[in-house]
Design goal:
single chain, about 260 residues, alpha+beta, 9-stranded antiparallel sheet, 10 helices, 9 strands, about 45% helix, disordered N terminus
């Protein structure tokens, strides 16, 4: 007997995208849990920017407008989740990147393969899937975007070409603000200093490129770090491990999923 969400509360679909493809701004009546089986995704909303490497997923609550940019050949498994199921999965009211367990990946595949008339089995798999989702680890793969148009314009410029070399003065000029006003308003709008925000943007951009096979050396140079060691230290500060160790663990997880 299933006294939780009904089978109609969860549906899983799959879709592939080409490198560089953009899924234009849209929203859903149900929540969307987008899992990148291959490739990587950058997602933009009015509140922030998220990076989703392969073997990770992002939760997008219902009605939130979002735009997705694809990195590499992306295979995306989308799980659309109704209100009752959202509560059972303990999903937040804001966008969030999550780690995805091997069991959860297998549950996506199992639901995808079910025939249309398999209602009882779907309900059982759904119950396990929602329970597994409720324990997913949250990952710090996001940067806030200010809603002020002047600050937002400057931030979009930075996001289009992330680099450690862009200065506070340059950003203030892009926003048509004095340095002092820019730094004060930026911290008020994002909760971060610009220097910390810039570091987060560059590390998340690096994560996306490294997940696609770029070398640590090339990425550190392209993003304007003074040295590979400086880049590795910034990466470890945000993600808890230096890039080589992080990527090694990421690849091991990917191999287990195959």
């Amino acid at each position: 007997m299933n006294d939780g969400a009904g089978a109609a509360d969860v549906s899983v679909t799959t879709r592939t995208f080409k490198p560089g493809e953009v899924f234009a701004r849209h929203s859903h009546e149900e929540g969307q849990f987008a899992y990148a089986a291959t490739g990587g995704i950058s997602m933009f909303t009015d509140e922030g920017n998220w990076v989703v490497p392969a073997q990770r997923a992002i939760w997008v609550p219902a009605t939130i407008g979002h735009e997705m940019h694809m990195h590499g050949h992306v295979t995306m498994l989308n799980t659309f989740i109704g209100p009752r199921a959202v509560q059972l999965a303990a999903l937040p009211s804001h966008c969030q990147v999550f780690g995805v367990s091997a069991l959860l990946r297998h549950l996506f595949d199992a639901i995808l393969e079910l025939p249309a008339h398999a209602g009882a089995k779907h309900a059982r798999l759904e119950a396990v899937l929602l329970d597994e989702m409720s324990g997913m680890p949250r990952l710090p793969f996001s940067v806030p975007l200010p809603q002020d148009l002047r600050l937002s314009r400057a931030c979009r410029y930075m996001l289009d070409a992330p680099t450690q070399t862009i200065s506070i003065d340059e950003m203030a000029r892009l926003a048509n603000l004095s340095r002092r006003t820019f730094t004060r308003q930026f911290r008020e709008a994002t909760g971060l200093s610009f220097v910390v925000w810039r570091q987060h943007v560059c590390v998340l951009e690096a994560l996306s490129r490294l997940s696609q096979g770029a070398s640590v050396k090339d990425v550190s140079v392209d993003l304007g770090y003074s040295s590979t060691s400086a880049f590795s230290a910034a990466f470890k500060q945000l993600l808890g491990e230096p890039p080589v160790r992080y990527l090694s663990r990421y690849r091991e997880l990917g191999a287990k999923a195959c």
